[in-house]
Model the fold of this input.
Amino acid sequence: MTVIEQISVGLGDRSYPVLIGPDLLVMADKYLADLIVKKQVVIISDTIIGPIYQNSLAKAIMPICDRVEILQVPAGETSKSLSVLDKVCNDILNIGIDRNTVLIALGGGVVGDLVGFVSAVLLRGTQYIQIPTSLLAQVDSSVGGKTGINAKAGKNLIGAFHQPKLVLADTNLLISLPKRELLAGYAEIVKYGLLGDANFFSWLEDNWSGVLSLDKDKIIYAVKRSCEMKAKIVAADETEKSMRALLNLGHTFAHAFEAVANYDGQLLHGEAVAAGLGLAFDFSVIRKMCAKEDAIRVHNHLLQVGLPDNYASLPAGKAPISVIIEHMKKDKKNISGKLTFVLANKIGSACIVPNISEEEITSFFMAKGVNHV
Done:
């Protein structure tokens, strides 16, 4: 019998469990029964995931519900927008709800971020549950209560901290993912080893093939360890006043690359993160914070699994350095107009570095062979 792993995101009276294992979706009534007070649920998914899983979820929870409604949004990053937010909010209000209605985010990171934000602002706060269907969402975006949408100025600049009541990470749902989506999620798993657990990174170097082939024990361990690390950081710094920013290792680069690529699908978030991780270690080496040997290990691992490890291999790789930096200047971590990066002391140890100048980043990119200033 498969054991369902459980961790807790410890936030006092807002604490909630993250359940990890197979077949959680078809047994959702067992885990949701105590949370559905009014017995009214609205499932929000997208046009790819919805047709695959929404009916199975609705069937599973029907015994504990009087009313189940289903909504879909277009698949892809463009759904993290004001226009889609407006439509979803009005569609839910037209259904007729109150603050005891439970929203369920059934999908990847886009759906989870969008539905979480809808839940935060609708009726000034409703309850929601995360059922992440992508590897990236299971190990990262579904946990921690960061919700939001993108603005023209940059990624995730409109949002709120709003915690779910429960996260169900059903590892069986990963079977339907294309290899590219699995790899994108794997980049976030690598991030956790690099920022705070060198032994976990070593384990990934030895077991990455099993994780990506969805070996039952290996994928459950990888998801669990990632969630454990995130839960610990979130419990200590829920609203990112300090150490939660460590979760953004590689992301100052990544978010800028995504903005250049216009969120149109040519660059997945995890692909941008992978390149950002490689560059974060390179930048750390140049700043004499980190040994070159560690950066080489990071690059070798990313390339071995099939992820990008640098700027030039991305769709953003032809963009002028000045354009990349303009997007970096909109990063939420920046203080008083100065860039802030999360960099590495070594594999397994990251730190927050403020007051980095545009000139230093420009020099770094040029040292990496990027000359289109």
